[in-house]
Amino acid sequence: MSRLSLAYSPCPNDTFIFGAIAAKLVNLKGMDMDIHLHDVEELNRACRDSRYDVSKISIAALPHLQEKYGLLYSGGALGRGCGPLVVSRPGFDLKDLVSARIAVPGIMTTAYVLVCLFAGQPLKVTPMRFDSIMPSVSRGEYDLGVIIHEGRFTYQGYGLCQLLDLGQWWEQQTGLPIPLGGIAIRRGLGQDLARKVDHLISHSLSLAQKNPRLTENYIKRHAQEMEETVIKQHIELYVNEYTNNIGEEGQRAIKTLLTMGADIGLLPHLQANLMAYP
C-alpha cells in the first residue's frame, strides 16, 4: 500500500473537491492518505521543504518548486471572474499604489504576483494570513489589501470598497482565465503514481458534483463559520470546467502568468515541464 501525504486548504472549493477522498467514499486503489489542511501560503512554504507528497499550491509558487513538484490536471483553481480584489477604506486612490502600505496573503501567492504585474514592478508588501487582511485594512493599519477566497463576497461588511479586480484586469490583458492555484505532486513519486492520484482526485470531484450532500458536512466543518450562502457562492465560483481538467488553455494561462512574473524579476524562469506527466 502506498502511503501519501495529501494537503489542501480548508476553503470550500478544496473541501468540496477532496471531501470524498477524506471520507473514503472513493476507491483509493491501494493508497492510504494522510490528510492535512492549512492556509495556501503555509502549503506553499511547506512544499519548499518537500513536506507533502500531494498539495494544493499557488500557481505563482510553482517556479520556486519546479524541480521537486509538477502539476496535476484536476483539482486546480482557475477561472474567469474569480481573481483577487484590491480593497481599501473609502478615499484611497490607486495612483498611490507604489507608495501604499499593502497587505497580501503571502509572497508566494498568485495574488501578490498579480498586483505587482499591475504595478509593473515588485512592490513592498506585508504578507499575512488571508483572513487577517480585511480587518487590518479596516482598522487603518494598511492602505490596501489584496484579498482572495470568500473575501470578494464579504469585504463590504468591513466598510471597504473595491479599487481593482485583478482577475478582470488579467483577462483584459491576456484574454485567458486567471490561474490561481493547482494540485502539485512530488516528481520523485513517478509519472504512473501521478496519473493514479490525478484520476483519484477527478473521481472525488465527480462524486461531489453529482451529489453535493456527500461532502456538505465536511465542507461546513472546515468553513470557519462562513455563512451558507457564501459557501455556495465560493464553490460555484472556484469549482468549474478548469477544476475538472486544466486543459491546454489553462496551461497557456499558467505559462503566461509565470513568464510575465519572471520578466519583471519577481519569479524564477520556468525550466522544468509544467505538468507532472504528459
Structure explained in plain terms:
- The protein contains twelve helices and eleven strands.
- By secondary structure, the chain is of the alpha/beta class.
- The protein has two domains: 2-79 and 177-263, D-Maltodextrin-Binding Protein, domain 2; 85-174, Periplasmic binding protein-like II (D-Maltodextrin-Binding Protein, domain 2).
- Strands 1, 2, 3, 4, 5 and 11 form a six-stranded mixed sheet that branches. It has a five-stranded mixed sheet with strand order 8-7-9-6-10, with helices on both faces.
- Helix 1 links the parallel strand 1 (2-8) and strand 2 (31-37).
- The mean pLDDT is 95.
C-alpha geometry? globular
The total beta strand count reads: 11
Radius of gyration: 18 Å
By secondary-structure content and strand pairing, the structural class works out as alpha/beta
Element layout with pairings:
Elements: E1 2-8, H1 12-22, E2 31-37, H2 40-48, E3 54-58, H3 62-65, E4 69-71, E5 77-79, E6 85-88, E7 102-104, H4 110-119, E8 125-127, H5 130-138, E9 144-147, H6 151-154, E10 161-165, H7 166-174, E11 178-186, H8 191-210, H9 216-221, H10 228-238, H11 241-244, H12 247-263
Parallel strand pairs: 1-2, 1-3, 7-8, 7-9
Antiparallel strand pairs: 3-11, 4-11, 5-11, 6-9, 6-10
